[in-house]
């Protein structure tokens, strides 16, 4: 359409081009007089609409939603002809046509459907409804018949500028097609039922009504054709009809210059002027300037000028009222924001006072102990020490301390979010009846971010706060902050390269330490479980590290779990759907559990019941096994599950809490986490909803706090103790900063620290108190030629595991490289 539109523009010798303005400015369309200079240039295309220019600048009056099509206005059944209104509208359209003719343009679309009226009868020129390409019910036949007549002749020499302006206007939608005012075919259908002038039918006939005799005979459009159309328009302005049939008959008679008798009687002067404009001979019609300066339009000019002044005054008053409403609304919103900010500052100030008192109390105890230990010291020395303590409490010292931590400054917004989250939870616990807990918002990446409004609104006035406990939150927040800042780096203590030259795939799927942290095991797609002694790996005198035990499976291994009671016992799951129980001391599997029908992703030993094992599979089930039931006379016997939980989606992970064998959590491919009481496995205790993709891992931080990992790039922390609802959809914390979109990257928890892998080949460590990473370490490859470490973007961390009660963790990536890392 764009190319066809551009091809219809024709050139002549004029040096003037078109501008990308949309419609005439409401203040530029004054009643013209002899001193008026040229103010606009008009053009039209099938796609773009109308373009105007005043001098060298753009003049625009935006089309508003309350503007109405002139066609609809004319056909309104309750319209009463007002002489000044009709003259005012006609004058504006004549001026638009004059401006176009003065620049060498033939407007062609001088038809009511091509104009819209504002509430003050301001006229704006738009693209015709019947010629829009939107398919809004305009009648495709008429569009096709007029395809060569709906494009203005371009007589300038700046065609590239026109094409560019057309594209720009189309993109910005400054001029909408007529469907904006008809609101599509649904509105048309409603109009056909309610309106005696069906818009679709009228638009189909309109082009015939406004076609000049010479155009009907096949002659090209000319300026005289525009004058003829002005005569038709003038007749429509003064002649009303009660039905579509009457309208069509009246307009058909107009083709022969036959007017209704009542029109001749009521509007004789207008009828004479219409006859002049509708003369069948183009040369006998007046020119557009003659029309503008005719006696018919000159006599009421003073009244029209006065009317225009009144309308401009009303418009200015309306605009001032609009501006006043905007400013009032803005003031109200800013005042609300200021009130919220004052509440927030007051709340923080009260916390500062509490922390200052607590710090002074601790410092006073420290000073007292120092005095008792050093009673022989001089008084001046006591004063110096007291002054040092006092100086340490000054705000400047505190400010310097926080600025010395780049990690805190870099993540200050998230730290602020964590502070408000901690305060909310503390207040909810201490003053629960006094306030309601407002929901937390999300920043789009999963991290919980409280806005200024939401953070303040969660707390009552300071007077109420004093009634409850205010210092309980300090210990938890300070503990999290201290642990977050306790370590600066992850340092490599030892490395193992488990790449098998005879096996092209060395992906390590699972890692695990035994109950005492003396041994750790690896398992993966190489179908082997390898057990290493931790202390021997740290021996720097050894260049090559061998496993103390190596056990082979028939299938690729997906997960392992050490028994926390029986030291040498490991459970494993594989891609064939088999769960195996291994005796590390005997270097063999002594039991196979084969009820799963598809791949088993996860297996876990119960902490409180060492004979209970859970497994989750692609067959949409979780199975519970008792490893003692099938042991008979030390013979290997296939086991039978003691319980099954059916789900609607694949189960990717299972986990027992550390203090109970009666509950179980598992994550599913339906983006949810399920928490079950095994004594009633028919329905879950809670369903945790919040992830957007598959839940790949779940881990218990403590008996009432659960951590979940998903391939939506987030970890989420859930509080299972405070909710009595079946569905929990608001996590306590959402952790972001690692990348995990498609792979199992590992998850491990120890003493509040959370380790996870990333598809950037990094190990990322969080602390449960804050949503941002505390530490990270990137695995790099060693170039075999240069010996330098190089990054490999195709690799990812596949498994991580903390060593019990320590700051050390073991991590492996998809190449089979294993590193022992320590927080330092």
Automatic annotation (TrEMBL):
WD repeats: 593-628, 688-728
Organism superkingdom: Eukaryota
Entry keyword annotation includes Repeat: yes
Keyword terms: Repeat, WD repeat
UniProt record, GO biological process: photomorphogenesis
Protein name: Uncharacterized protein
Region entry Disordered, spans: 1-21, 132-159, 366-398
Polar residues bias (residue ranges): 149-159, 366-379
Any matching Pfam family: WD40
SUPFAM superfamilies found in the cross-reference section: Protein kinase-like (PK-like), WD40 repeat-like
């Amino acid at each position: 359409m764009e190319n066809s539109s551009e091809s219809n523009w024709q050139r002549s010798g004029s040096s003037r081009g078109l501008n990308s303005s949309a419609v005439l400015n409401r203040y530029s369309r004054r009643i013209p007089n002899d001193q008026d200079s040229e103010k606009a240039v008009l053009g039209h295309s099938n796609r773009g609409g109308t373009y105007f220019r005043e001098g060298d600048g753009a003049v625009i009056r935006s089309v508003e939603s309350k503007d109405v099509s002139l066609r609809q206005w004319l056909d309104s059944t309750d319209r009463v002809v007002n002489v000044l209104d009709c003259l005012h509208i006609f004058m504006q359209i004549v001026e638009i046509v004059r401006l176009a003719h003065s620049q060498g343009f033939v407007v062609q679309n001088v038809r009511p459907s091509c104009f819209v009226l504002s509430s003050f009868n301001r006229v704006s020129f738009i693209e015709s409804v019947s010629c829009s390409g939107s398919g809004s019910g305009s009648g495709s036949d008429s569009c096709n018949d007029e395809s060569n007549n709906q494009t203005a002749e371009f007589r300038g020499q700046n065609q590239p500028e026109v094409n560019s302006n057309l594209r720009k206007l189309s993109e910005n939608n400054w001029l909408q097609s007529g469907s904006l005012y008809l609101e599509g075919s649904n509105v048309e259908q409603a109009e056909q039922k309610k309106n005696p002038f069906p818009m679709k039918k009228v638009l189909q006939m309109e082009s015939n009504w406004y076609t000049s005799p010479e155009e009907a005979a096949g002659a090209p459009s000319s300026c005289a054709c525009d004058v003829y159309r002005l005569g038709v328009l003038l007749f429509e302005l003064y002649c009303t009809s009660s039905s579509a049939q009457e309208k069509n008959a009246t307009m058909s008679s107009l083709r022969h210059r036959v007017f209704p008798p009542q029109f001749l009687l009521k509007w004789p002067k207008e009828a004479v002027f219409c006859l002049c404009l509708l003369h069948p001979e183009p040369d006998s019609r007046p020119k557009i300037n003659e029309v503008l300066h005719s006696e018919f339009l000159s006599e009421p000019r003073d009244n029209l000028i006065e009317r225009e002044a009144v309308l401009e005054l009303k418009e200015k008053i309306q605009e001032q009222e609009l501006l006043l409403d905007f400013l009032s609304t803005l003031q109200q919103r800013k005042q609300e924001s200021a009130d919220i900010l004052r509440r927030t500052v007051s709340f923080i100030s009260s916390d500062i006072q509490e922390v200052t008192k607590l710090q002074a109390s601790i410092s006073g105890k420290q000073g007292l102990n120092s005095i008792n230990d050093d009673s022989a010291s001089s008084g001046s020395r006591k004063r110096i020490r007291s002054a040092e303590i006092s100086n340490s409490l000054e705000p400047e010292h505190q400010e310097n301390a926080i600025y010395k931590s780049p990690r805190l400054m870099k993540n200050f917004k998230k730290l602020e979010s964590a502070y408000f989250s901690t305060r909310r939870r503390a207040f909810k616990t201490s003053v629960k009846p006094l306030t309601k807990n407002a929901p937390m918002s999300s920043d789009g990446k999963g991290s919980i971010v409280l806005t200024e409004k939401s953070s303040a609104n969660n707390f009552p006035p300071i007077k109420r706060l004093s009634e409850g406990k205010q210092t309980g939150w300090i210990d938890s927040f300070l503990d999290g902050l201290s642990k977050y800042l306790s370590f600066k780096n992850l340092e490599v203590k030892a490395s193992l390269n488990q790449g098998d030259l005879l096996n092209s795939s060395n992906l390590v799927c699972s890692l695990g330490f035994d109950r005492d942290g003396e041994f750790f095991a690896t398992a993966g797609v190489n179908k082997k479980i390898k057990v290493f002694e931790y202390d021997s790996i740290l021996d720097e005198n050894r260049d090559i590290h061998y496993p103390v035990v190596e056990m082979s499976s028939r299938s690729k291994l997906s997960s392992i779990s050490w028994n926390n009671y029986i030291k040498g016992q490991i459970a494993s799951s594989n891609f064939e759907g088999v769960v195996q129980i291994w005796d590390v001391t005997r270097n063999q599997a002594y039991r196979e559990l084969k009820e799963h029908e598809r791949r088993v992703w996860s297996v876990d030993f119960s902490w409180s019941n060492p004979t209970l094992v859970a497994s989750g599979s692609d067959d949409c089930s979780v199975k519970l096994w008792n490893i003692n039931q099938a042991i008979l006379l030390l013979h290997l016997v296939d086991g039978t599950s003691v319980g099954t939980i059916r789900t609607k989606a694949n189960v990717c992970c299972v986990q027992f809490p550390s203090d109970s064998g009666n509950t179980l959590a598992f994550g599913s491919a339906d983006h949810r986490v399920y928490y079950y009481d095994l004594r009633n496995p028919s329905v879950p205790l809670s369903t945790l909803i919040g992830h957007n993709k598959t839940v790949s891992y779940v881990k218990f931080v403590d008996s009432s706090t659960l951590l979940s990992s998903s391939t939506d790039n987030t970890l989420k922390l859930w509080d299972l103790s405070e909710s009595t609802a079946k569905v929990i959809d608001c996590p306590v914390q959402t952790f972001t900063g690692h990348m995990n979109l498609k792979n199992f990257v590992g998850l491990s928890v120890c003493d509040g620290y959370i380790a996870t892998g990333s598809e950037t080949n990094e190990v990322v460590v969080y602390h449960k108190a804050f949503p941002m990473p505390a530490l990270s370490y990137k695995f790099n490859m060693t170039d075999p030629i240069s010996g330098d470490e190089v990054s490999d973007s195709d690799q990812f961390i596949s498994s991580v595991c903390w060593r019990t009660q320590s700051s050390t963790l073991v991590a492996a990536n998809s190449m089979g490289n294993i590193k022992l890392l320590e927080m330092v």
